[in-house]
Write a structure and sequence with these properties.
Blueprint: E1 24-25, E2 28-29, E3 56-63, E4 68-73, E5 78-83, E6 90-96, H1 106-113, E7 123-125, E8 131-138, H2 152-159, H3 169-177, E9 191-193, E10 216-222, E11 226-232, E12 248-254, H4 261-266
Antiparallel strand pairs: 1-2, 3-12, 4-11, 5-10, 5-12, 6-9, 6-11, 7-8, 8-10
């Protein structure tokens, strides 16, 4: 079981079976080109948070800075994503676990709700118009789903050829998707949890200083079994992660099952690092 967290201790894994398997193709092993576990700035304030929804913890994992992550969230279960260091973009893709051809759709989601932002109550819809997940709790004013994902190509276009060696969320998505027999054709427009992309009066978009903070959270309920892919964004050319990549915490709970004392211990919130 997970134990209480401090600013120096990442959450323990509380599930034996993990969705990830060795990513292999006929050409050999696929691995992300993004370095995993980069050290964030000394003295960074970290708050490991807790689940936004009560229930039995079925999964509690840390996503290292720059790293990808994936898991299947069962129907009715709630995933809480904790922005441990503050303003750390968590790029996210959703797929119907039984049929990955049905996947998250930005146009369907925004058209159904008639608003450009993702907030509490937003239903995250598929390309078939069906609900995949619903935002049931959210601790920042708005979440983004129109800013897209960074990658080597877009980095070069936006910031110059001197950054062409910088890898991004696209590379993370490809590496993690390969674990589930998904590839380039399966990447679609994504969610950007904790990233601030305002829509200006003239329709222009910006990637600006975030509105999040250490320990801020968002919680989404699965309306069917959903494969969730996350890239802990490694971007270092704009403020989407405060130029200081920090960890994320992923907590899945079953709200239909009462929390145990061990679950309560695992959810204790750490003090921010001095």
């Amino acid at each position: 079981m997970a134990t209480s967290q401090t600013e120096d201790t990442a959450p323990a894994e509380v599930i034996e079976t993990v969705v990830n398997t060795d990513p292999t193709t006929s050409g050999g092993t696929i691995a992300s080109t993004v370095p995993v576990g980069a050290v964030y700035a000394e003295g960074s304030a970290l708050d490991w948070g807790a689940s936004l929804v009560e229930g039995t913890v079925v999964l509690d994992e840390t996503v290292a800075p720059n790293a990808p992550w994936s898991a299947v969230v069962k129907q009715g279960h709630v995933l809480t994503i904790v922005d441990v260091g503050g303003n750390q973009s968590a790029d996210c893709l959703l797929y119907d676990a039984a049929d990955p051809e049905e996947r998250y759709s930005v146009p369907d989601t925004l058209a159904w709700q008639g608003n450009a932002y993702v907030r509490t109550g937003t239903v995250l819809r598929s390309n078939e118009g069906r609900p995949l997940m619903t935002v049931v709790a959210n601790e920042i004013d708005r979440q983004d789903t129109i800013g897209g994902a960074c990658g080597k190509e877009s980095n070069t276009l936006r910031y110059g050829h001197h950054v062409m060696f910088h890898h991004g969320c696209r590379e993370n998505f490809l590496a993690e998707a390969s674990r589930h027999d998904l590839g380039v054709r399966d990447l679609v427009s994504n969610l950007n949890w904790f990233m601030n992309v305002p829509v200006e009066a003239d329709g222009a978009l910006g990637i600006v200083d975030g509105m999040s903070a250490p320990g801020r959270r968002v919680a989404v309920r699965a309306e069917t079994d959903v494969l969730v892919l996350v890239s802990n964004c490694p971007q270092m050319n704009n403020p989407c992660n405060d130029f200081n990549p920090t960890p994320l915490r992923m907590i899945v709970v079953d709200p239909s099952s009462p929390a145990t004392s061990n679950d309560a211990n695992s959810q204790s919130t750490s003090e921010a690092a001095a």
